[in-house]
C-alpha cells in the first residue's frame, strides 16, 4: 500500500510516474512537525534495520549515521562523508513491521538514522515543502517493488555496455586510444569500449572535438568506425559547465535564447569549472533541455553510441563572488600577525570556496513551475541534464539504445540512464563500499551502475585491481577508470595481466545470465543485487551479513575485499554449490552445507555460490559482446529431479526488441543421468540429496 501526503507547495520533481491519491492527515508511522522545516521522526527498537539511501557511505544497514541528500562533488570520500554525488531519498525501516519512506523534495534532506539519538530516526527537509510517500507491505521485496512501480521502469543500455570498458583521464589523442585497444588485445583482455575524458574536447568545450589530438569531428568519426571494426566503441564525456567564450556557438546560442541559469539580474550566472569561466544550461527549463540535448547529435553523427555526464551536481570550483570574498579575507590579514586561528580560517577560506551556499542561492532556473532559486532544486540538476540527453536520443534515434550514465542523480533519473559512483580511491575500503552500495542503488532503481574499478584517485596496487575486477565482473557497468595523476591501471600494466584478462573473460561467460537477470530486474521492478535478508527474511543471520550479495535468481556472491587475504569467511543461508574459477575456467564445484565456512580463495581465483534448484548458464569467452556465442552454453546446476530457468536475450541494440528472445534451459535426472531439453547445452550438474535422504 502506498500513501501520499503533501506538505506546503513542493516543486514537482517528476520522480513519480504513478498517480496516487493524496491522503489527509499525516503519514502513519511518523511524528510530524511542519514549521520552517518539515521533520518526520520515528522510534527505533534495538532490532530495527534500515535499508536504502542508494548512493551513500557506510553499510547496507544504514542505521547509526546521519546522511545528507545534497549532490556533492566529493572525491576521496570517507565514512564521515555525509553527502556523495546523488540524492536517493528512499529508506525502509525493517522491524516486526515494514515501512518504506520516499521523501520527494529536491532540496537538502537530512536522514539522521539513529545518529544523534540511537533510538530515533529523524528526517529533516530543509523547506517545509515535500511530497511524502509511505509504503507498507509484507516483505522487503514487496516494498521496493511498490516504490519502483511508483517511480517507473529503469533504463536499459545496449548490450555491448555489459562488456568490459576501459577508461582513464589521460588518453590524450587518437593514438593513445588505439594503443589501449591494441595492448588489451595483445594480452587477451576482452574489451567493448574506451572512454574519452575531457581531453578529447577542443579547449574543454562541450560538443567540440580537439582539432589536432583527435582530428576534429571528422577524425573522431574515422576513429570510431576504425575501432568499431574491432568491436570497440568510444564513449565521450560531457560536462555540465559550458565555456563562456565569444565565438563558441553553444555559448552564444544559449545566451541569445536565455537558456543558461541566470543570476539575480537575469544575466548568465558565471562559475569556474574545468573550461575556466563557464555557465550552466538551465536543464529545468524544458526548452533549454531540448536545446542542450539536441547538441549530442554532433557526436552521434560521428558514430558515437554512448556518453557519460560529469560535473552535474553541479560542481563549482568557485564563483567570481566567492573568489573575491576569499581574496578580501586574505587582504584583511595581509601584513598582520596571523595567529593560529586565523591560519585555520585562511585554509578554510579557499577550501570552502567550492561549497558556498550563497553561490547556490544566487542563481535561478526558469521552470514551468516558475523561477526558482537553485538551492531549492539543487538535487534535480544532474537528473535533468541526463534527461536532456536521453530525451534527445529518443527523438533522434527512437529505436536505438544509447549508453548513458551520469555522476549526479535523483530518483527518477533511473528511467533515463545509469550512474557511476564518482571519484572513489584505490582503497580496499572503497571496494567494500562498492559491494555494499550495489543493492542500495538497485532498491532505488539504478540497476545499470558501477564504480571505478581499481579506484579513481590514488595509486592502485596489482592485488587491488585483481580483487576489484573479481567483484566488478558482476556489476552491469564494468569500467576500469583512473585519474591522470595516478599509477596507470589498465590490465596490461601488470605482471598479472593474463590472470586479470582471465577474470574479464569470465565476465563475458557470465553475460548471458547477467543480461537476462538485468532485464528481469528492470521488467519486474526488482533488484539484480540484493542483501541476503531480502531472500532469506526468516533467517536473522542473513540480516547481519554485509559483504555477501544475492546476484540474480541463482547466485550468491562473497567477494574478497581485504588485502593479503587468501580466503574469507562465508555464511551460507542454505546449502549451496561452491563454484571455483581460475580465470574463465571452472576448477571445481563443491556442494556445501548451510552455515559458516572459511573458504580459501587465492588471488588468482574466485568463487561464487549457486542456490539449490537453480541453474547458472555460462557462455564461451569472447573478445567483445558482439562476438559472444549465446547458443552453446555450459549449465552449472545444483539440485535433484528437474531444474529449469528462464533466459532472456535480444538483439542488444533496438528498443522495440528488448527482451524479445526467450529460452528455457531445463535439466532432468533420468535413469541416474542428467539430461537436458536442448543439445546445445553442456551440463555440469551436481546432485543434491533430496531433503528426505540427507
Ligand atoms: O574534477 O573529467 O568523476 O571520472 O575523470 C574532475 C575528469 C572531473 C570527475 C569525474 C572523473 C573524470 C574527471 N572529472
Structure description:
This protein has 694 residues and is an alpha+beta fold. 24% of the residues lie in helices and 27% in strands. It has 15 helices and 42 strands. Strand 13, helix 3 and strand 14 form a beta-alpha-beta unit. The longest helix is centred in the last third of the chain and has 27 residues. The two termini are 42 Å apart. The mean pLDDT is 97. The structure holds ligand MIG. The site of ligand MIG has 11 residues, from loops.
Q: Determine the N-to-C terminus distance.
A: 42 Å
Strand order of the largest sheet: 24-23-21-18-14-13-12-26-25
Query: How many beta-strand elements?
Result: 42
Percent helix, as a range, is: 10-25%
How large, in whole angstroms, is the Cα Rg? 25 Å
The overall pLDDT average reads 97
> Which of globular, elongated, flat, extended, rod-shaped describes the shape?
globular
Which cofactors or ions or other ligands sit in this model?
A: ligand MIG
Q: How would you classify the helix and strand content by structural class?
A: alpha+beta
Q: What are the low-pLDDT stretches, counting only 5+ consecutive residues below 50?
A: none
Determine the number of helices (DSSP H or I, runs of at least 4 residues).
Answer: 15
Estimated share of beta-strand residues: 25-35%
Biggest sheet features: 9 strands, parallel
Architecture blueprint of SSEs:
Elements: E1 2-7, E2 31-34, E3 38-43, E4 49-52, E5 65-69, E6 86-87, E7 90-94, E8 98-104, E9 109-113, E10 120-125, E11 130-135, H1 140-151, E12 164-166, H2 174-186, E13 193-196, H3 216-228, E14 233-239, E15 242-243, H4 249-257, E16 271-273, E17 276-279, H5 286-294, H6 297-300, E18 306-310, H7 320-333, H8 340-351, H9 357-361, E19 364-367, E20 370-373, H10 374-377, H11 381-396, E21 403-406, E22 409-410, E23 418-420, H12 428-443, E24 449-450, E25 452-453, H13 462-472, E26 478-480, H14 497-523, E27 529-530, H15 532-535, E28 549-551, E29 555-557, E30 567-572, E31 576-582, E32 585-592, E33 595-600, E34 605-610, E35 614-618, E36 633-639, E37 642-644, E38 647-649, E39 661-663, E40 666-670, E41 673-676, E42 681-687
The structure holds ligand MIG.
Amino acid at each position: 500500500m502506498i500513501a501520499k501526503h503533501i506538505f506546503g507547495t513542493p516543486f514537482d520533481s517528476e520522480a513519480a510516474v504513478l498517480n496516487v491519491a493524496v491522503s489527509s492527515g499525516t503519514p502513519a508511522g511518523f511524528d510530524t512537525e511542519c514549521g520552517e522545516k518539515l521533520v518526520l521522526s520515528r522510534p527505533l527498537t534495538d532490532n530495527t534495520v534500515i535499508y536504502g539511501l542508494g548512493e551513500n557511505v557506510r553499510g547496507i544497514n544504514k542505521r547509526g549515521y546521519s546522511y545528507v541528500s545534497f549532490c556533492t562533488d566529493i572525491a576521496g570520500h570517507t565514512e564521515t562523508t555525509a553527502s556523495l554525488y546523488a540524492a536517493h531519498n528512499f529508506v525502509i525501516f525493517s522491524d516486526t513491521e515494514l515501512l518504506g519512506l520516499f521523501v520527494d523534495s529536491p532540496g537538502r534532506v537530512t536522514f539522521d538514522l539513529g545518529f544523534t539519538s540511537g533510538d530515533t530516526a529523524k528526517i529533516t527537509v530543509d523547506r517545509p515543502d515535500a511530497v511524502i510517500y509511505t509504503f507498507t507491505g509484507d516483505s522487503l521485496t514487496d516494498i521496493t517493488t511498490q516504490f519502483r512501480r511508483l517511480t517507473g521502469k529503469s533504463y536499459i543500455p545496449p548490450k555491448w555496455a555489459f562488456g568490459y570498458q576501459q577508461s582513464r583521464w589521460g588518453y590524450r589523442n587518437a593514438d593513445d586510444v588505439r594503443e589501449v585497444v591494441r595492448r588489451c588485445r595483445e594480452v587477451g583482455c576482452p574489451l567493448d569500449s574506451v572512454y574519452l575524458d575531457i581531453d578529447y574536447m577542443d579547449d574543454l568545450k562541450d560538443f567540440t572535438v580537439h582539432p589536432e589530438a583527435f582530428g576534429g569531428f571528422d577524425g573522431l568519426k574515422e576513429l570510431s568506425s576504425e575501432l568499431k571494426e574491432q568491436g570497440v566503441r568510444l564513449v565521450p564525456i560531457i560536462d555540465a559547465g559550458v565555456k563562456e567564450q565569444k565565438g563558441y556557438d553553444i555559448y552564444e546560442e544559449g545566451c541569445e535564447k536565455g537558456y543558461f541559469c541566470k543570476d539575480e539580474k537575469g544575466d548568465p550566472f558565471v562559475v569556474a569549472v574545468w573550461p575556466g569561466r563557464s555557465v550552466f544550461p538551465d536543464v529545468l527549463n524544458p526548452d533549454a533541455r531540448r536545446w542542450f540535448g539536441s547538441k549530442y547529435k554532433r557526436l552521434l553523427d560521428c558514430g558515437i553510441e554512448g556518453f557519460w555526464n560529469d560535473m552535474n551536481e553541479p560542481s563549482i570550483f568557485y564563483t567570481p563572488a566567492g573568489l573575491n570574498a576569499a581574496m578580501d579575507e586574505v587582504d584583511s590579514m595581509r601584513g598582520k600577525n596571523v595567529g593560529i586561528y586565523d591560519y585555520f580560517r585562511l585554509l578554510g577560506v579557499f577550501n570552502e570556496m567550492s561549497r558556498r551556499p550563497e553561490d547556490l542561492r544566487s542563481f535561478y532556473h526558469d521552470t514551468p513551475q516558475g523561477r526558482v532559486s537553485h538551492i531549492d532544486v539543487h538535487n534535480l540538476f544532474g537528473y535533468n541534464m541526463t534527461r536532456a540527453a536521453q530525451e534527445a536520443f529518443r527523438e533522434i534515434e527512437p529505436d536505438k539504445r544509447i549508453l548513458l550514465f551520469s555522476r549526479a542523480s535523483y530518483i527518477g533519473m533511473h528511467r533515463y540512464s545509469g550512474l557511476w559512483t564518482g571519484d572513489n580511491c584505490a582503497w580496499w575500503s572503497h571496494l567494500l563500499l562498492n559491494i555494499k552500495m550495489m543493492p542500495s542503488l538497485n532498491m532505488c532503481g539504478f540497476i545499470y551502475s558501477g564504480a571505478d574499478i581499481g579506484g579513481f584517485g590514488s595509486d592502485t596496487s596489482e592485488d587491488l585491481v585483481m580483487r576489484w575486477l573479481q567483484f566488478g565482473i558482476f556489476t552491469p557497468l564494468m569500467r576500469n577508470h583512473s585519474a591522470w595523476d595516478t599509477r596507470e591501471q589498465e590490465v596490461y600494466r601488470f605482471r598479472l595481466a593474463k590472470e586479470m584478462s582471465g577474470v574479464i573473460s569470465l565476465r563475458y561467460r557470465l553475460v548471458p545470465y547477467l543480461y537476462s537477470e538485468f532485464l528481469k530486474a528492470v521488467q519486474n521492478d526488482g533488484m539484480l543485487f540484493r542483501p541476503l535478508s531480502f531472500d532469506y527474511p526468516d533467517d536473522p543471520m542473513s540480516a547481519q551479513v554485509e559483504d555477501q550479495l544475492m546476484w540474480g535468481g541463482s547466485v550468491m556472491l562473497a567477494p574478497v575485499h581485504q588485502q593479503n587475504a587468501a580466503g574469507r569467511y562465508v555464511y551460507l543461508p542454505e546449502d549451496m554449490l561452491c563454484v571455483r574459477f581460475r580465470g574463465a575456467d571452472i576448477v571445481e564445484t563443491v556442494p556445501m552445507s548451510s552455515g559458516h565456512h572459511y573458504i580459501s580463495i587465492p588471488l588468482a581465483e574466485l568463487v561464487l555460490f549457486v542456490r539449490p534448484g537453480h541453474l547458472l548458464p555460462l557462455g564461451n569467452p569472447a573478445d567483445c559482446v558482439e562476438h559472444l556465442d549465446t547458443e552453446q552454453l555450459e549449465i552449472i546446476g545444483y539440485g535433484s529431479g528437474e531444474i529449469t530457468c528462464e533466459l532472456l536475450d535480444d538483439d542488444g541494440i533496438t528498443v522495440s526488441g528488448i527482451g524479445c528472445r526467450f529460452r528455457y534451459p531445463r535439466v532432468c535426472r533420468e535413469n541416474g543421468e542428467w539430461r537436458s531439453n536442448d543439445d546445445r547445452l553442456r551440463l555440469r550438474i551436481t546432485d543434491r540429496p533430496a531433503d528426505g535422504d540427507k
